[in-house]
Write a structure and sequence with these properties.
This protein is mainly α. It contains ten helices and five strands. The longest helix is centred in the middle third of the chain and has 12 residues.
């Protein structure tokens, strides 16, 4: 299974010490260079920065199609370089899943025919697979520790899907 990730799923799971869920679900994660740079190229301590540099199951891969990245950034409003590279890399690798939380980026990825899931979808899948017992404490941790934003309607929907 090929899974490409944007920055948010990695940093948010790392913030609540649950980054290993991605390895347990997918075995391997591919991130584009821009996502790697967003995490390790900043002065402040970003959750997950050490992990993307040291964990062997997180692999950075450069995007060959720089013209495709440029096209997305020029034609789509408010898509950052990490999102654009993640979308293009997922297309180039024919990825099974693209992990992305940002609404605009998800819409662009879906318009390119990609299978996209966000962090809450990862938590729901982890519960379905028996990796975690409950989604609620992790969602609450994301909200409290990582300042993760989720509408009350989506929060309730995820709990209902998870049977909690």
């Amino acid at each position: 299974m090929i899974v490409v990730s944007d920055t948010s799923p990695i940093t948010n799971l790392a913030a609540i010490a649950q980054l290993d869920l991605l390895q347990q679900l997918y075995s391997r994660l591919v991130i584009p260079t821009a996502v790697y740079n967003e995490m390790v190229g900043v002065n402040n301590n970003v959750p997950g920065a050490v992990e993307v540099q040291t964990l062997p199951w997180i692999q950075m891969q450069g995007v060959v199609d720089s013209q495709g990245v440029r096209l997305i950034q020029e034609t789509q409003a408010n898509i950052d370089l990490g999102e654009a590279e993640a979308i293009v890399l997922a297309m180039n690798l024919n990825a099974d899943i693209l992990l992305m939380d940002e609404r605009r980026g998800r819409a662009v990825a879906i318009s390119y025919g990609l299978n996209v899931t966000g962090l809450l979808g990862v938590l729901w899948q982890a519960k379905r697979n028996g990796i975690i017992l409950a989604v609620k404490p992790l969602m609450d941790g994301l909200i409290e520790e990582a300042d993760f934003r989720v509408s009350s309607k989506l929060y309730a929907n995820i709990l209902q899907l998870a049977g909690e």
